[in-house]
Amino acid sequence: MKTIVNPIVKDEVTFIQTAAASKSQMTVLSVKLMPGGGTPLHYHKNFSETFTVVQGELTVYLKGKKIVLEAGQEYTVQRGKTHRFANESDAPVFFSTTIQPGSVGFEKSLYILYGLAGDDRTDSKGVPKSLLDLAVVSKISDMHQPGILAVLSPLITLFFFIARSKNIDKALQQRYCPDFL
Length: 181
Hints:
By secondary structure, the protein is of the alpha+beta class. It has one domain (about 1-180): Jelly Rolls (Sandwich), CATH 2.60.120.10. It has helices at about 105-120, 130-140, 155-165, 170-175, and strands spanning about 1-5, 10-15, 25-35, 50-55, 55-60, 65-70, 75, 85, 95-100. The chain has a 6-stranded antiparallel sheet, covered by helices on one side. Strand 5 and strand 6 form a beta hairpin. The longest helix is centred in the middle third of the chain and has 15 residues, at about 105-120.
């Protein structure tokens, strides 16, 4: 098991089961999410995501519905469903996330995001400062923006192709994803 830490937002992710080890059946992560942490609204085209709370409270938003999960509770967000999750409490929340089927790209995106944060290449919320880096992470993670932000999708795709033409995607993976080489 490998643990990575985002030095900016202090979140921790431990890889319990990888896509490679499970023959692409699943990716299982153990997550420590600090107060105020979470993701923007997004959806995944290629996998479902199950959140199981171990300790604390995790808030999941799905289609305008707010679901507060406590220790022992779980919720599955099916592929294609817009959602976000957040720690709206005053204490860290510990939960597991199961991605089915497993996603090497999603796993790599976490390594890259946390690595960029460690190299001071993200803002105070952990978002890459470079649009090319952001495009690479967005594409390999299967994280898509809904609603009005969906109009940015062609731009993200364009920036991703620019990043690939400059081998930025390979450079990011070589620097931050040594476990995948």
